[in-house]
Amino acid sequence: MNNNETTDLLRVRDLKLHFRVKSGAVQAVDGVNFDLPKNQATVILGESGCGKSSLAKAILRLLPKNVDHYSGEVFLNNQDIMKLSDEQFRKDIRWQRIAMVPQAALNSLNPVMRVGDQVAEPILLDGKLTKKEAMELALEKFDQVGVPADFLYRYAFELSGGMRQRVAIAMSLITEPEMVLLDEPTSALDVLTQANIMNLLKRFKAEKKASFILITHDIATSSELADNVAVMYAGQVVEVSDAHNFFTEPLHPYSKALMDSVPRLYGEMQPDFISGQPPSLLKPPTGCRFADRCPARFERCSDEPPVFNMSDGRKVKCWLHESDSVSAESNPDTWEEMYAKS
Amino acid sequence: MIRWSEIRQYPSAIVGLAIIFGFILLALYAVITIPYSEALERWRGGEAVVENNPRNARPTWVNWFNQENLPPTLILDSRELPETAISYTTISDDIEEKVITMSFDYEYASFVPELTFFIEADFIEKQPFVEIFWVTPNGEEIRAGEVTPGGQEIYRPTQDDRVMRRVEANSAEVGFFLDPSLAEPTPQKGTYQVRLVGLIFEEESDFEAKLVMYGAVHGIAGTDHLRRDISVALLWGTPIAMAFGLVAALVITAANMIIAATSVWYGGWVDSAIQRVTDVNLILPGLPLLILIGTLYSRSIWVILGMVIALNIFGGGVKTYRSIFLQTRELPYIEAAQAYGAGSRRIIFRYLIPRVIPLVIPALVTSVPAFVFTEATLALLGLGDPVLPTWGKVIENARSQGALFNGYYYWMLEPAVLMMLVGVGFSLVGFALDRIFNPKLREI
Amino acid sequence: MLKVDDLHVWYELKRFGLGHAGYVRAVDGVSFELNAGEAMACVGESGCGKSSLMKTILRLNKPTKGTIDFKGINVGELDGLDLRDYRSKVGFIQQDPFGALAPFMTIQQILEEPLIINGFTNAAERQSKIETIMEEVKLTPVEEILPKFPHMLSGGQQQRVVIARAMILEPDLLVADEPVSMLDASVRVEILKLLRNLQEKHNLAVIYITHDLSTVRYFSEYIFVMYAGQIVEFAPIKSLLENPTHPYTQALLEASGDPDAKNALEYKEIPPGEPPSLVNPPSGCRFHPRCKFAIKGKCDVDMPKPMPVVDGSNMAITGNKHVAACWLVEEEWKERAGLTN
C-alpha cells in the first residue's frame, strides 16, 4: 500500500462502519478502499443493502447513535480527516469541503423555510458573510443549477421534484466544496428530469472542475457521469475500474451479472437475473461474499480473496483474476498490521 | 404480535406489569373474600356492623414509626371467658350473685380513646343489677359504675357523673388508667382487672358483659369517622376502579377508533357530520354535565361510567385517529384490497383499524388511570356512588372530615397511594408497549 | 376484450372545500383496445395521467366521460356485486411491494383475503388455491413462507406475493403499475420474466404501466406513450424503438439510454421545462411549449389527431398500427404526397 502523497482528492482506506443492533453488529461498511482523483466522478454502484449509503455516512461522519465500530482512514488532499475531532470535522470538513446531496431531496428541505434561506444557510453558519452577500451567492448558484431567481423566496412544497433536486444541488455547491457526495440524486425523478440533472452535473464537472462521488443502484444513470466505478457488494468494494473498461467488460462476476441484469433498449442481449440473495451483513460468510451466488465459483472462493491489481490499473477482489493480475493487495484484515510496520 | 422476550427488555414494564398484576390479585381477593352484599353492608355501617370498631383509628402500621405502641382495640367478652373467671354464689332463695372477672395486660404508653360496656341481660320481670369494679395494676379499686341492664345496655362510664366524680379526670378512659405517681398523665402498665358483680333476682335470668376498649389503631388501613374499616373501601375500591378504568378506556378507545375510521373511509358528508359532532362534543363542558346528571338523575357509578363513555365517544380520540387514518387510507394495500373487491366494512375493520392498533394499545393502557382519576374527581365533587365503596369516596370523606387538619393523613394517603400506583403501573406498561410497537420512537 | 373509448377522468378542484375551482384533467380523451393474451405498456412521466387511467380501469375511480368496455360490460356503471365480480377478473400489481401488503397479516392471510371476499367458503379449496399459486410464482417452500409476515421477506419475494394475490382469482386482465421499479436491478428481470410467463400461460391481457422504457420491450407487444393526460403515440414496441415519431417519445428515448461509458462524454438533448398543469393545459398540442419542432399557428392552436406514421424506409404505412398525435406526421404525409404527385 502506497501512502505517499498523491494527487488524488480523496483516498479511502479500510473504512469500516458497523452498527449495533439487537442481534449483533451489522457490518454495513467493512474495509472499503477507493480513490477519487481530482475533477472526476467516482460511482459507487451497488444494490440496496450493500452498504453504499452507510459508506456516504461514514465518509461524512454522519453517524447514527448505534455505531458499533468506526475506523479507517479518509484522506482529503492528503490530510487524514478521520483524525479530526468531531467539532473540527463539523466546522472545517462537512459542507465546507465535502458537501452532500441527500437521497430524498423532497424530504431533505425544511418545509417551513424559504429555499433561498436554506441554500444560504451553510455559508451563514460560519459567519464570514452577511445575509445579503450570502443571498447573492445563493442567487448565483440558483442561476448555475437552472433555478429561476424568484424561487429563492418560495417554499419547498411549491417546487417540483426536479426543482427541489436542483435546489439541493445548489445548496451543496454554495460553499464551493472540493467534492460533492451525491446519494441517489435522481432515483425518485422522472426520466427527463433525471437526464436534465445528469446534464447539469456533467456541466459542473467540465466547467467548474467539480469532483463527485455518485452513489447509485442505477447502472444506466451511473454511466452518465462516471469516470471510475467502484462496485460494492455486502459491505465491501469488489471491483474498482475506469468507466470505459467497466461498462464494456466488467471483471468481477458480480459486476458482470449486474451488467447482464440491465434491460437494454437496443441490441439483442437478453437480460438475466442473479439468483439468490445477498448475505446477511450481521454474519457475512467467510471467504468471498459473493461465492454463494457466483456462477464461476471454485474451491479458492472459500478463502477471502485479496484485491488484485490488474495491468490496466483496475482492481478486483476475485480469485479468478489471480493469474492475470500484476500484484495483490493484502486482505483488509491484515492491512492495519502492514501499515503499522511501514 | 407481541413477545414476552421484547417486554422483558424493559425493566420498567416488568415493574408496571407487576403492579397491575398486584391490583388484579387484590381485586380478585376483595371480590372473593368479601361478597358484594357484605361489602355494601360493611360500608353502610350502622351499630351492629361497627360496634367493635373504634372511631378514626389510625392504621396499625403507624406503630412501626412510633417508639411506643398505640393500643389496638381490646375486647373482653364474658361469653368467651374460661369458666373459672365466672362464679355464682347463692345469697338467698331468690337472689344469686354472679361475678365476672376479666383481666388484661396493658402495655401501651397512651390512653384508651374510648371504653364501652355492652351488657346484655336476660330476665322475665326483674332486671339484674350489675356493679362494675376497675382494679388497676397497683391494686387501687375504682367503682366504675352500676348498671341495671334492660335487655341490651350500652354503658359508657365517661358519661356517668357518679363515676366521673370518683376518678378526678376529664374522662373515665383516662381516670381508669392514670398512674397517680406521675405528674404527667400517663397510663399505668401492667395487669388490670375488671370485676362485674351482678345480682340476679330470678332463677331463669342471667347477664353477659362485653368490655370494648376501642384502640387508637385498627386494621391495616384504620377507620373513619363512622367507625367503618377503611380497608373495606380500599379493597373493594380496587375492582371498581379497575373495572371503571378499563371499561371506560376500552370502550372509548374502540368507539373513537371505529368512528374515526368510518369518518375517514366514507369521507364526504359522513366525514363532515362526524367531525362536526365531535367538534360540538369537544366544547361541551363535561364536568358540569356530569354534575347535572349526578344531581338530577343518579349517582350510581355505572350511570356515571355510562355518561363518561357517552361524553367521550366523540372525543378528542376521533380527531387524533382520524389524522392517522387519513394517512393509512392512502397506503397501497388498501387500494389493493379495494381492487380485489373488499367492501367498506371489511376495509375499515380488517385493513384500517389493525394498522393503527400498535399506536392505540399503548395509548389505551396509558389512559386507564385517567379514568380511575376521573371517578375520584367526581366523588370529590360529591358525585360518588352512594352505596359502593370506592377510593374516591374515601378521599371525599377524608376531605369533608378535615382529615389533614385533624392528623388523619392516612385517610387521604391510602387511596391516593393506590391511585398513584395504578397510574405508575399502567403508564410504565404503556410506555414500554409504545416502544415495542413503535420502534421508531426508540432512542437508538 | 378491453376497449377504452374517449375516456376522460377529471377531478373537481374545490376552493376552501366548497366552491368549484376547475378540474384536474388527469385523463383527457384516451382510447385504446386490448385483446386477450396481449401485453400493452403505458409509458409516461409522473403526472401524465397513467395512474388515473389505471385506477379507472380498476374502477377505483369513476370515468367522467367515455366508456370502458370489458367483454361487453360497461365498467363505468357497475355497482355492488357486479362491481365485485368485475374486480375479481382484474388483477392488480402495485409498485411498492411492501406497501401493497398489509404489515399485520401473514402471507397466508394476505393470499386468503381475495378468496374470502369473493365467496370461496371452503377452507380446503382456498388452501389448495393458495398453494397452487405460490408454486406458480415460485414462492417456495410454501409451508415456510405462509406463516411469515411481509417484512420477513425480501423485496423480490414480497413482489411475488403481490403477484400471487393478483393472480389468485384467475383474472383475465392484469394491471401492473410499475411492478419492478422499486426492486433491485438483479431481481427486476426475474420478476418481469415471471410476469411474462404467467401472461403466456394464462393467456392474460396485461396493462404494464411504467416510466422505464428499457423494460418494456421484454414484456409487451404494444406500447402507448402518455403526455399530459393524452396518448401521444401508440405503436408495436419494435416500431416505436426504431422509429419514434412524436418529439416527446424521442425525448424519452434520448433520456433513457443503455449503460455506456460514452454517455459521460456528451450532453443529452432534453426538452426544456416541465409537463404542464392539468388544470389549465396548453391549447393545441399539449407538448408544443417544450417542442423544438413546434409550428407556430398550428401546434399551439389545433389539437393533433392520432394518425398513422410514415415509415422512413419504404414510404409505406407501417402496418397502420403505429400512430402518433403530432402535426409533423401530417406535414410528412403532405410532403410525401407532394413528392409523389
Element-level helix/strand string of chain A:
EEEHEEHEHHHHEHEHEEHHEEEH
Unreliable stretches of chain A: none
What's the total count of β strands of chain C?
12
Average pLDDT of chain A, rounded to a whole number, is 85
Q: Rounded to an integer, what's the Rg of chain A over CA atoms?
A: 21 Å
Architecture overview:
- The complex is a heterotrimer of chains A (342), B (444) and C (341).
- Chain A has 11 helices and 13 strands.
- Chain A has 342 residues and is of the alpha/beta class.
- In chain A, strands 6-7-8-3-9-10-12-11-13 form a 9-stranded mixed β-sheet, sandwiched between helices. Chain A has a 4-stranded antiparallel β-sheet with strand order 2-1-4-5.
- The longest helix of chain A is centred in the middle third of the chain and has 17 residues, at 191-207.
- Chain A is globular and about 65 Å long.
- Chain B is α+β, with helices and mostly antiparallel strands.
- Chain B has 2 domains: 4-40 and 228-441, Orthogonal Bundle (MetI-like fold); 74-214, Jelly Rolls (Sandwich), CATH 2.60.120.
- Chain B has helices at 4-7, 11-33, 36-44, 47-50, 161-167, 172-175, 230-266, 268-283, 286-296, 301-313, 316-329, 332-339, 344-383, 391-400, 409-437, and strands at 74-77, 86-90, 96-106, 114-122, 129-135, 141-147, 152-155, 190-200, 206-214.
- Chain B has a 5-stranded antiparallel β-sheet with strand order 2-3-8-5-6.
- In chain B, strand 5 (129-135) and strand 6 (141-147) form a beta hairpin.
- Chain C has a domain at 38-67 and 75-225: P-loop containing nucleotide triphosphate hydrolases (Rossmann fold, 3-Layer(aba) Sandwich), CATH 3.40.50.
- Chain C has 12 helices and 12 strands.
- Chain C has helices spanning 50-57, 80-88, 97-100, 107-117, 123-136, 142-145, 155-167, 185-202, 213-216, 237-242, 247-255, 327-340; strands spanning 2-15, 19-34, 39-43, 65-70, 73-74, 90-93, 173-177, 205-210, 222-227, 230-236, 307-308, 323-324.
- In chain C, strand 7, helix 8 (185-202) and strand 8 form a beta-alpha-beta unit.
- The two termini of chain C are 41 Å apart.
- Chains in contact: A-C, B-C.
